[in-house]
Amino acid sequence: MNSNTSFLERTFSLSERKTDAKTEFLAGLTTFMTMSYILAVNPNMLAEAGMDRGGVFTGTILASIIAMLFMGFFANLPFGLSAGMGLNAFFTYTVVLTMGHPWSYALTAVFLEGIIFIILSFFRVREIIFLAIPSSLKNAVSVGIGLFITLIGLTTSGLVVANEATFLTLGNLISRPSAVAIFSLLLMAILTAKNVKGALLYGILAGTVLALILGVTTLPETGAIFSLPPSISEVAFKLHWKNIFTLDMFSVMFTFLFVDLFDTVGTLTGVATKADLIEDDGNLPGVGRALLADAIGTVSGALLGTSTITTFVESASGVAEGGRTGLTALSCAFFFFVSLFLFPLFSIIPAQATAAALIMVGLFMITPITKIKLDDFTESVPAFLTMVTMPFAYSIAEGISVGMITYVILKVCTGKHKEVSAVMYVLALIFALRYLRPILPF
Fold first, then answer.
1. pLDDT one-digit tens code per residue, 238-273
2. Is the pLDDT reported for residue 3 higher than 60?
3. How far apart are alpha carbons 3 and 241 in whole angstroms?
4. What Pfam families does the record point to (predicted)?
5. Can you tell me the mean pLDDT for 210-215?
6. Please, which contacts does 46-50 make with residues 24 or more away whose CB atoms are closer than 8 Å?
7. Rounded distance, CA 55 to CA 76, Å?
8. What's the whole-number average pLDDT of the chain?
């Protein structure tokens, strides 16, 4: 065993998790390819809030790298992190454009949320919450996330579109963009059926080539593939401390906190379950460190000029390719670093190609449904509601909320209250009060 192999083995326990460096590297690249869309979406969205697009691009990458370095070396888990979708929309469209606050105010709320998360992580509050979730709901979260990202993949690719009469319907399947998505999806399926490692990545790359041929995507106008990273001077360290001790700030900060907490817990639960990293007692080794890495990423992001950094559900694509250790996260971080200088080249990858990967991952994510006791309705009903709420409400957090509330209610009403932990009672009550808040007198 050479020194490099020995170092990697000692650091990441590759053989113990039945993987190797090549598999981990490929898994990190696959995760990057499926989540790289954030490098185009997030700068554009935050630019609507008045932020410098180039600065947000660089800040997002740097904060993502910091978070993944902690996830890789500190937690040794195969998760990619970057600016969370949904949270960036709340940042722009609610806090700035609806409530009328400056974007620096929103960044301050993100910063404070991250600090609170770090404190909670040190006191193991987030880890305790993770361990309190029953196995049936953990498995349901994995399935729900699979359905959720399948819906994202179908709508992003254009294979499914909005329709006033039926809400959703099939798109134009004979259009050029659809051809790219269908070709990529079928190629991924064929290669997966043949047990080809890197099937999703090869499908993305082949889909990109077809997109170039069909004119769905084009090479950069200048022909350049190298560029220096845009400056972050316009967005970094621009926190807003005026009037922060207000109900508005508390409301904004709590919303960031709530969504980030349960999206992160849900993603860690679902992806870790698929990766077979969950132990028999329901514990995920290193979950506390993973949650701390997520919190550190959020604080770093606020300081560098981007919205909340969170663990990406697209990490499931890397897990599906065999990623099992922190080396996958470090590999993903490496490609984020490369994208600082080669973004013109990475930007040609069409959404249709990466969307096909999300659809395939949706299939991989639903397998834990076989572990749910479907004949025990106190377990299966909450699990089912968790699964369907995520895609239909377009929110991982809402799926967890509905699942926890119904789990506690059914257990209590059927005389099985001893199967419910104290933490679950508290969480269900908090979630219920959140939904009942509009009709409460306080």
1. 998 877 787 778 878 887 887 787 778 888 888 888
2. no
3. 50
4. Xan_ur_permease (PF00860)
5. 96
6. 46/88, 46/91, 46/92, 46/103, 46/306, 46/307, 48/92, 48/93, 48/97, 49/91, 49/92, 49/96, 49/97, 49/103, 49/106, 50/96, 50/102, 50/103
7. 30
8. 88
